[in-house]
User: Fold this.
Amino acid sequence: MGYEYRSREGEDAFTEDYYREYESGMSLGDARIPIVIVVDTSQSMNIIVNDPSEVVRCAGTDRQQDGLSVYTVRAKPGYTLKSRLDACREVFREMLVRMQKDQTLRKTASVCIISFDKFADCLQDFLTVSSIDSSITRELKLGAPQTRAAVGLSRGLERLDRQQEMMAEFGNDSYKPVLIFMSDGNPTDRAEAYRMQGEVRKRSEEGTLNVIPVAIGRDLDESFLRGLTGDGRVYHMTTEREFREVFSLISQKIRTTTALMPADEDTGNMAEHADTTVPSTEYGSDFSMDLDDFLNS
Amino acid sequence: MNTHTNQKADRQSRPIPLSVLVNRGRMIFFDATAINAAGFNKLLMQAFPDLKGKKETCLFIPSFAAAAIAEDKKANVSTLIRYKLAAVLNVPSVRDYEGFLPLIAGRSREKGDFCFLVNDPGKARSILAASKAAGIFVQIFMITDEGQLTGIDFRRKETGRGSGPDKILPDAFALCDRPERMQVRPYRSAGLLGPGSVVYTEDGQAVRLMEKEVANVNGTTYRTASSLGWAKIYAPQFMNSFMEAKIRRMLSKPVSWPGLCWPRGILRDRAGTFVGILTAPSRGVPLHTTIFRSSGLEQAFPDWDRKDLTDLTITILKAFNYLHRMNILMGCVNPASIRIVSPGEIFLLDTDNYQIEGFPCLVYNVSFTPPELQGRRIYLCTKDNEDYAVAMLVFMLMMQGKTPYTIDRKTPAAKALVDRNFPFSAGNLKGSGVRNAAMPGTWRFMWSHLTPFKEPFYHTFQKGARYERPQDRLRASDWLRTSERFRESLERPSDPESLRIRPRTFKRSKEEPFYRCEICGVEHPRFYFDRTYFDEHKVCNGCMGKKSDKSFTCRSCGRTFYYTNRTRFFHERKKREDADWKDQKYCRDCKRKTEACVDCGREFPFYRLRNGCCPDCGREPWKTKRCRSCGRTFTLTRADYHATVGQGKYEPERCPDCRKMRRGGGGFRF
Assistant:
């Protein structure tokens, strides 16, 4: 009730990054895969991800924060404290670096970065991966002690829609977009968050959106994250090694979505070549396993 | 004077006897192709009574056409001449209709009295062009086998299938509609093969594998130390009796075309197991990463223009034409296996994937699969099926990698191929996927310069259009003719912008005035300018959406936002109309960061709240007090309440001025 923002004429103002994509889309016409990364930067992301054996609990520090019961720890000698956000920044950076090294993705993927706590902020408008400075991860800073997942998801979807609409106006192809949602899974705006969760799952089930929920932290309630996709799949990150494994998988998933020909994004049989430096003439599916039936039916 | 029109052709598609023209007093000119036609004798026999009654000769044969009359028709023609029913027009200095029409133009008494009988569409077109140049109206007919006259549909002949099927070559393979019946027996190689391994030809020659050159799902191709060629070693699932039998079938016929990497022989491991093939070496860059991508083309062939691209298309189509005349079908067109060296030199790799007789292609992709075969995993395709893939390839070559259907959030690829909403128009033919043609975009510019291709592409890819049925599709030879015509037109283009691979604007036409955009400096047609601001600013639609130099910095987040040019002009206009028009202070994102007022509960942008109170509630009086310092009464508002008591602090005891002084803001008051 009360105030509801309505876009008015005369407010079409955008960042420099937006215009870079606009000019590129208009003049080059290249197909793009839009990827929006929505990152939880609420206070709960300050929780440590170290193994319990690496830390010492500080007595008398129990309290409530961002909907959780928390306490303070210090690192044992020889160990460094690492928060969820620290770990998130590291792998986030690594994901960007890997995307930039990938010959297909660096020119095809456009990435937008949204952070959210009480409000959502767009840290980076859509920009081709090759143009993104990986130091953008330093912009991920701890925010307010509220996790309003609805505003984060809503802003992410809105940016995706805007980007795709721009591409459509130019007549450019746009591959199935990707939404990567990184959170510790405890939204404080329950009703709104679950409403947006339903919207995201609907798009995932319709096949118009690839959703990759990433759970950050230990002992999480993953029900919210599971509800984002039809198959309930959630990626986990509790140690550094897992971070790297999962983001490698995510990069691969994004790569197989980015087919050389746009219509092949759903082929499931693309072979992986151990040697990726050798030029390939392959794309599309191989049906040699069905050959016997075909020849003798 | 008008020339023969397509509407006229429609009316004349109904066969008429020659006597109709004779009785109307037409002057009838015979081309040799009409005289040599099967129905020529019947035509004369049917018209003979009317011809006999004519006082003046009305059948004419230009001398350059008479020279091409077939031997078996000369006797009949001589008879006609002897009885003065026909005459040869002696024009020794003229060799074609281009020179002939101006000579006879003066003899035209009324519109349409010149009738040409010609059974060759190419000749018919040249007569039409010559009559247009000479400024006279002609009618053109062809002779049917039944000896009747029928009009020529220039549209269909211009863009439709050429008459008759493509000529099959003597050594061609058979075209099969049933697969080769056989059991697929897997083979197992004696060991893992890779660089350094040795394999053997069928006559026992050793071939050492060197560096990997190309890889794909069914194998890896290696450079070898042998002059016999390169070696393709199959992946385990492809080492089987099927592939061996297929390769043997491929080797049974002499297949040769420049750049076609046909198998040269079978390779075996030391145990004699079939492991792969010898193939020709290849070079060049892949089609799909260069020609189909602007950055790739810029890198690989920075100096290319539209002529080069068209030459490349012609080279590829000639290869297709040859394959089809050998009854070899690709089965699944794969741009990744086409390598480009220059516009005239290409290499076709992975020919072992092609469909040969009853041996199907085993790789599949959605993009090049025709609608009638979508969803089928393995199949034996027909030439009609493959014609769709050829058309798709030509489209992607001419449109630099763009597919015929726009894929977006609402229309994923699979749906696009079912809906077939073509996003371009061809004259009055508007594709069902057309968005606003005045919107910016390189594809719209590119399309406007592809005049000879527009109708064929429209009729091929638009659902419900003329070439939708497989049997109606244009063949590779038809696309080749269109490409060659287009290439000819590029030698003297009516618009120099047509020579660019990526034209900067639409193709010029005589009807549409062009204006120069004051930002990009390119001349565009009138419809590509925003009519709202056209009188003040000649800025094209593309530049309207670009960044202007007008910006503001959000007071909340501190980021700087730039207006589009269109919005800048909007602000300028508003300021002229309304002196109170204010500059923007907050960005859209910050305006949507709302919080509820602690008093009334309404949502407001957070920057409008003071101590949690909205402007309305914040101004509401809470209580009146007397200042402890100066003694004057002052009013505390709801905002003051939430700033103090609401946060667990004490109520202020002094008025705002005295509080300010106590904080160091000035001297004492009494």
